[in-house]
Amino acid sequence: MCVAFPGKVIEISGDFGKIDFGNGTIRDNILLSLVNAQIGDYVLVHAGYAIQVIDEDEARRTIEIWNEMTKDLSHEKKKQDFYEIIGGSE
Which family would the database say this protein is a member of (predicted)? Predict the structure, then answer.
């Protein structure tokens, strides 16, 4: 099963973007070449790749679902799971 997490494109350099996942989590070098994303767009990210452009409402609903699903996990476990989804580490 593939899981992706939404983030906002805040910078683009060539085929790569800087993505803001909220709560102070920003990641560089997310590959954008699979989608037609612009600065300000929300994208779903899996394993370092933006795989789909989504609207802001869908991004917010996805984050709410994530928060509900992980509400009983420790902070460290949430971080670990998040980084496994988007790729990379803290």
Answer: Belongs to the HupF/HypC family.
pTM equals 0.85
Euclidean distance between the first and the last CA atom of the chain, given in angstroms as a whole number: 23
For the chain, how are helix, strand and coil distributed in percent, rounded to 5?
30, 40, 35
Architecture of the domain made up of 5-86: Roll (2.30)
Structure tokens at 50: 């933006």
The owner of tokens 């394993």 is 47
Q: How far apart are CA 32 and CA 14, in angstroms?
A: 9
| Domain segments of the chain as ranges | 5-86
